[in-house]
Amino acid sequence: MKQKTRMKVSDKANVRLTNSKQEADNSINKRVMRGVVEQIATERNEKAVALRDKGKIKDARKELEGNAAYLRNQAKNLGGSFEQELNKMAEKNNDESKNLDKGKWAASRKSMRARQYKQKTQQSY
Length: 125
Known about the structure:
Layout: H1 21-26, H2 30-53, H3 57-78, H4 80-97, H5 102-121
Helix pairs in contact: 2-3, 2-5, 3-4
């Protein structure tokens, strides 16, 4: 016989407001932000695959090139060890934008989908 029970969960959040851009920038958790950037880039990469699957090669190329630019910009903003990781992702997107034509698409699509899955599930292997 099941009983209905209620659980209560609570926690506290610390919040600080500032008008200083420098103070706000310094308070960014770069490790978390890198994860956010990677997930956004993965979603944009998925959008490019969907566009290419519909035969919209120009739109897919534009999406991948825009994604590469976004990643390079975020790499510069985050700096440090994250810069190299995000620049590597940007280069991959740039390379993928050149492999959308019929002859190269099947292999490119397969590697893109595998990387998307890895990023979405945050697998390290």
